[in-house]
Design a protein that fits this description.
277 residues, mainly alpha, 82% helix, 0% strand
Length: 277
């Protein structure tokens, strides 16, 4: 009995400084490996005397990053605008459709085959079509590609979270004369939140990939996709790798932001408690 009561006692709160120290210690192996790979890359490319078009050294990429920073900064801002705009539209559409799919079987039968088909369309096939529909210089042409990539993961994850609830919990609420709206607010939506954030974390990286790839097929030159195409065409692969690096960093930042929001919104979930140091 005493052991059972001890398990119910709240865990002592860890000071913020201790949590930060533990987080740094946990991430230290990855940091060491990252910089070790950069050093090895620099040394091996220098010893093998590889041409820049094959593989530039990290020092050359860093120099191009500094020299081309105004262009890269402007391109990253425009690409992020396209990625975030498409992400917002795709997430909203996916969530709203998931609510309809989970509520009405006829909607599910009508929507899911279309969603599966749309998710199977290759980006390289859809991007030129979107440019013709919305205009090659219109950012929404790139956002539409992002919506295609984001919509299906959000639809599947959220609809699963709304549907896969404990039957006994539903029966208990029904026995307490709970309405459909109360079951939705107090049971189905909290159950769907972890699924929502799983889809959101996947969608953040997909959104940036979709925006960059869509930019390959034309549009404004002040975007990362066009910087990559133009610099590689002129054999300035140091600039190409610098643009790739800033795109990767932007994707990582978007993912970490989604992760931080998840920890704020659902700190009660088992996955978040297990992640606490």
């Amino acid at each position: 009995m005493t052991a059972g009561l001890a398990e119910l006692e709240p865990r002592p709160r860890v000071p913020a400084s201790v949590r930060v120290t533990r987080q740094i210690r946990n991430q230290l192996p990855a940091i060491v490996v990252f910089f070790g790979v950069l050093v090895l890359w620099e040394v091996v490319v220098g010893l093998m005397d590889l041409q820049q078009f094959i593989l530039p050294q990290p020092s050359e990429i860093a120099a191009a990053f500094v020299a081309e920073w105004p262009r890269l900064q402007k391109g990253a801002g425009n690409t992020l605008y396209e990625a975030l705009g498409g992400l917002a539209i795709g997430v909203s559409a996916g969530v709203l459709t998931a609510f309809a799919v989970a509520r009405w079987a006829r909607v599910r039968d009508a929507i899911l085959p279309i969603a599966v088909g749309a998710s199977a369309v290759p980006i390289i096939a859809a991007a030129p079509i979107m440019s013709i529909w919305f205009g090659i210089l219109n950012p929404f042409a790139k956002m539409a590609i992002v919506v295609l990539l984001v919509f299906f993961p959000m639809l599947i994850n959220v609809s699963r979270g709304l549907s896969q609830v404990d039957d006994s919990a539903v029966e208990l609420m029904r026995a307490s004369a709970a309405s459909d709206g109360q079951v939705l607010r107090k049971l189905r939506i909290p159950n769907a939140l972890p699924y929502f954030f799983t889809g959101l974390k996947v969608s953040t990286t997909l959104s940036l990939i979709g925006a960059v790839v869509a930019e390959y097929f034309g549009g404004s030159n002040d975007v990362l996709g066009r910087v990559i195409v133009q610099s590689s065409s002129s054999l300035r692969f140091d600039i190409t790798w610098a643009a790739i690096a800033i795109a990767a960093m932007s994707g990582i930042a978007m993912y970490l932001l989604a992760l931080a929001v998840e920890r704020l919104v659902i700190p009660w979930h088992a996955s978040q408690r297990a992640a606490e140091p």
